[in-house]
Design brief:
The chain has 14 helices and 2 strands. By secondary structure, the chain is mostly helical. The chain has 2 domains: about 55 residues; about 240 residues, Peroxidase, domain 1. It has a two-stranded antiparallel sheet. The two termini are about 25 Å apart. About 10% of the residues have low confidence.
């Protein structure tokens, strides 16, 4: 026979702590851990899809009533446009709702769009902010006459804000544009197609230092942005240094000329590029629900620690009673 095992309070605490360290070490090194400041994985079930469709209808009404399509599209773009393909940080994760990020210089004026979306979010609380902002951008394009952009839900929210300076600087040229968009994993065609979204809206001096609209009708999504870029005389309409770069660079100009003469080609490529932008760093479709099993496993592992602690403490309690 073996001598009875003597467990003291200090030894028990040590044992529990060791078990905790082992389990959480395993979780940190596995794919099952949910990153700090990241929300739980979004479960895209029937109810979630129903809320998405209701939110889509609400966004259509809101955008039409407040003529805010350009603002909503800018919100979607700026939330997604922070993505870094190398570090896998930033992207369409809803972090722009945090003051630290919407206070960045490039995001001047977007608090208004965030507040508009909050009205929709209040009626459809299950939807992630990340999904809501990208859905707002998709709807903004559609209600102004643009192409239908395929929207896949399931983005999770993050409170981790990227540093300022990841978005394009309108005062710079083609090399800067490539640096920004290539960092995201996008192409020259994406750069030009997405720039076509300047067909909507206008620049405001208090936000960007520039003033004016790019097209005659800033609430109509069409290919007029590219037609105007190729015009020598477009008095009264805005052409930023980044806009002029699309004409000065031969690779970019090829797409500008194509889109100026063929709106269908522009709409097709824009819808494709917008979808890519809205899904940077996001794994859509069936893989969205994959973390559920992982979460269960993680919870089970933590449960083992708790169960072990309960058993040890129960033993100590009983042992203490017998010793009295």
């Amino acid at each position: 026979t073996h001598p009875p095992i003597q467990l003291s309070i200090s030894n028990s605490i040590y044992t529990i702590t060791l078990l905790q360290q082992l389990v959480f070490s395993f979780l940190r090194q596995s794919e099952f851990v949910i990153p700090l400041k990241m929300a739980l994985p979004v479960v895209v079930d029937a109810e979630y899809l129903k809320q998405i469709e209701k939110a889509r209808r609400d966004l259509r009404a809101l955008i039409a009533n407040r003529n805010c399509a350009p603002l909503m599209l800018r919100l979607a773009w700026h939330d997604a446009g922070t993505y870094d393909a190398t570090s896998k940080t930033g992207g369409p994760n809803g972090s722009i709702r945090n003051e630290e990020e919407y206070s960045h210089g490039a995001n001047n004026g977007l608090k208004k769009a965030i507040d508009f979306c909050e009205e929709v979010k209040a009626n459809h609380p299950k939807i992630s902010y990340a999904d809501l902002y990208q859905l707002a951008g998709v709807v903004a394009v559609e209600v102004t006459g643009g192409p239908t952009v395929n929207f896949v839900p399931g983005r999770r929210d993050s409170k981790i804000c990227t540093r300022d300076g990841r978005l394009p600087d309108a005062k710079k040229g083609e090399s800067h544009l490539r640096d920004i968009f290539y960092r995201m994993g996008l192409t020259d065609k994406d750069i030009v197609a997405l720039s076509g979204a300047h067909t909507l809206g206008r620049a405001h001096p208090e936000r960007s230092g520039f003033d004016g609209a790019w097209t005659e009708d800033p609430l109509k999504f069409d290919n007029s942005y590219f037609e105007i870029l190729l015009e020598e005389d477009s008095a009264g309409l805005l052409k930023l240094p980044t806009d002029r770069a699309l004409v000065d660079d031969n690779e970019f100009r090829h797409y500008v000329e194509l889109y100026a003469k063929d709106e269908d080609a522009f709409f097709r490529d824009y819808a494709e590029s917008h979808k890519k932008l809205s899904e940077l760093g996001f794994v859509p479709s069936s893989k969205v629900n994959a973390p559920k099993d992982a979460t269960v496993l993680a919870q089970s592992a933590v449960g083992v620690v708790v169960a072990a602690a309960v058993v040890i403490l129960a033993y100590l309690s009983e042992h203490s009673k017998r010793g009295k």
